Amino acid sequence: MTTTISSDNVVVKGSNLGSDFRTTRNVIHNGDFRVNQRAQSSYLQGTMTLDRWYSSANYGTQYISQQTTTSFPGYFLRASTTGAAAVSATSFNWIAAQQLEGNDLATLGLGTYVSNAKYITVSFWVRSSLTGTSSVMIGVRNSSNTWYYSYRSYSISTANKWEYKSATFNVSSNVNCPAPTYDNNFSFGIWFVGGIGSNYYSATENTFTTTVYAGTASNVNFTGTLNATFDLARVQVEAGSYPTQFEFIPIAQELERCMRYYQKSYALGTQVGTGTFDGAYGHTWTAQRPNYYASFGFWYTIPLQTRMRTAPTVGLWAPNSGTGSRFSIDTGSYVDGLAYTNAISDSAIQVYSQNPADYGKSGVQQFYGGYIHYRATCDAASS
Length: 383
Description:
Layout: E1 2-5, E2 10-13, E3 43-44, E4 54-57, E5 61-68, E6 75-83, E7 92-101, E8 119-128, E9 132-141, E10 147-156, E11 163-170, E12 186-196, E13 229-239, H1 251-259, E14 262-264, E15 281-290, E16 299-303, E17 313-317, E18 326-330, E19 334-344, E20 348-354, E21 366-377
Antiparallel strand pairs: 1-2, 3-5, 4-7, 5-6, 6-13, 7-12, 8-11, 8-13, 9-10, 9-12, 14-21, 15-21, 16-20, 17-21, 18-19, 18-21, 19-20
């Protein structure tokens, strides 16, 4: 197989997948970083960031942001340091990480699901202000809830220039890669390493162990350099021993895949907690009605926009004020009432409101309707 690499793309002649070529080769969600439902301009380490991706570090300070350009690569993820720190033995920095549920792993051919499983290839574009050795780690969780990890190193040759990288992992039985659980639990992960301490060093690459080994003493300490940048684009994880051309997923399909883990009632580019009625759920009437469930206010079910991985963690906001855990209740002018969830499933949220302070007094208040925004999340970190 021949792979030609240019600054714009990876052109693959032939296929390492043979007759088993799949229309969705890339199991990673939002691999080109187009989807940013949380709509923040930047994210501090230790949180979910762009859809399906999270950042985690226990030293230094770094922020993650979505970047766009009219040239290559279009969208990309940027990590930038605003506080440098020395590495200790227990230090770690996962610049970007994603976990996949077992239901999405069949195409990787892990374990006994596909009998001839041998390799997984990770490919991506990277640009950094720092040169040197870095690494990418993957992990697989078995039916006993034990994770096995393996890493591969790569080198950044030139500062501030896009470079194409690929890393192939041997997932055959002789390197201890377990069979994952094929269910809705997180059973596969990928971690891009930005710095590690000696507890995570191992000279042996490409072998799965239950200990988290993510690189060597040669790894660049990205978090140890103030104002450093690390850019990541077009991440792909696929079955086979060679990388193929990055698979662009139509935005409607990619957004729906991401909404299985995070969704909101707000417009795509609007942050939760914004005071706006756009997208809010609620009931309205053309004339005033007397107290409706005097002790509870409103009670109704919000159908989720797509079925989620599991029953999500839910946040509620009043559209008028943007206040959390509140309804906006129309009494002629908007007032906030306390909002609660009564029942949550992977397909719907049942919510109800408690009336404002002077509600609940029969015949005192009348209203035209009540409105609410929601956010539902069931990703690797609930934020």
